[in-house]
Amino acid sequence: MTSAASPVLVDGLDRPLREVRISVTDRCNFRCTYCMPRSRFGPGHAFLPRSQIMTVAEIIRLARILVRLGVRKVRLTGGEPLLRPDLEEIIEGICSAGALDVALTSNGALLAPRAQRLKDAGLHRLTVSLDTLDPQLHRGISDSGVALQTVLSGLSAARAAGFGPIKLNAVIRRGLNVTSILPLVEFAREHGDIMRFIEFMDVGESNGWKRSEVVGGAEILAVIAARHPLEPIADGTVGQVARRHRFLDGRGEIGVITSVTEPFCGGCTRLRLSADGRFHTCLFATAGNDVLSLLRTGSDDAAIAAFISRLWVVRTDRYSEERATAERRDPRLEMSYIGG
Ligand code: SAM
Ligand code: SF4
Ligand code: SF4
User: Fold this and answer.
1) DSSP states of 269-322 as a string?
2) Which of 23, 35, 41, 131 to mutate to test the pocket of ligand 2 (most atoms within 8 A of CB)?
3) How far lies 145's CA from each of 29, 36, 56, 334, in Å?
């Protein structure tokens, strides 16, 4: 519902709609073992047919409607968004639709030649996924032929283009890259970037998630603080998912995203839109709500806004808070499809 005092759409648990994550493609040039394991996303995998993927104009039209409904922040994701040659047009259109904060999450492999164009298109903020600084381990985790150095060159180009501080996302998995935590922190401090450590999540059905492989945020913070003392940053920002900490020596900050050990569903103000134009009200959704068919069969903006509003006002998702007790449900959608 929207109240007269504040034109904010709130859901069934009183959470405002503030942010949308738009997946612009379900394809990727990496096969990260925690996201798109090759056993499931091999040569025979059926990606969405091109005809079912939202066009630039469709994405921009939806962004404009979402901004009118109260969305302030748009994050473009995927799959790998830089696989879309028209990404800059999408960014320009979303900026002109009135979004106050337009961000992109990328694996960085194709960033070097595009960084300046992304900046020129109006992109405000950039997040690059970087799970380790060990070239062999990077090759193993990303399961791609892309060298770590290519990603690091992408980061340099992005800093030179004026993105910064860049957020660096690392998924930490026990037995895999715990020893990468400190080198990543030191790399980020040296370059003025911000590390975000993400707990390994049970998104989708194919990444072989085990609770025992989750390295909790508290443990990650302890590893870092033992070398570089930290203090929490009090952050009252609505929808802030990272627990932020600053270094006591004044050289930057880090964040941990504790969706498994300390869920934050109470502040979840995000809607998700998959590349085939379906809205999802939770990262752990089992089905989406098709808006692309409405667009393609001539619905006007008012009808589409009403469709989105109806979805949001009945939303009661809080999967991460219910994880321990939740009944087994229908198969969850994959991260690369829903967009992370
Ligand atoms: N391909 C881009 C990238 O990797 O940055 C954007 C899409 S990716 C799905 C978005 C984010 O989700 C990445 O930072 C990735 O590390 C994270 N991610 C994927 N699978 C995950 C999992 N099982 N647990 C936690 N984070 C995950
Ligand atoms: Fe691709 Fe990103 Fe998933 Fe890795 S995390 S497989 S880069 S979508
Ligand atoms: Fe939001 Fe769902 Fe994640 Fe909870 S589990 S924070 S409701 S996306």
Assistant:
1) -EEEE-TTSEEESSTT-S--EE-HHHHHTT--HHHHHHHHHHHHHT----HHHH
2) 35
3) 9, 15, 29, 23
Query: Does 132 belong to an annotated binding site?
Result: no
Domains of the chain and any CATH numbers: 19-338 (3.20.20.70)
**pLDDT tens column, 199-227:** 999 988 888 899 999 999 999 999 999 99
Q: Report the pLDDT value the prediction gives residue 97, as an integer from 0 to 100.
A: 97
Atom of ligand 1 minimally distant from the CA of 203: 23
Instruction: For 89-121, write each residue's pLDDT tens digit.
Output: 999 999 999 999 999 999 999 999 999 999 999
Q: What is the DSSP string of 71-91?
A: --EEEEESS-GGG-TTHHHHH
pLDDT band with cut points at 50, 70 and 90 for residue 2: very low
pTM of the model: 0.96
Q: Nearest 10 degrees: CA dihedral of 185, 190, 191, 193? A: 30
Residue 270 labelled as part of a binding site = yes
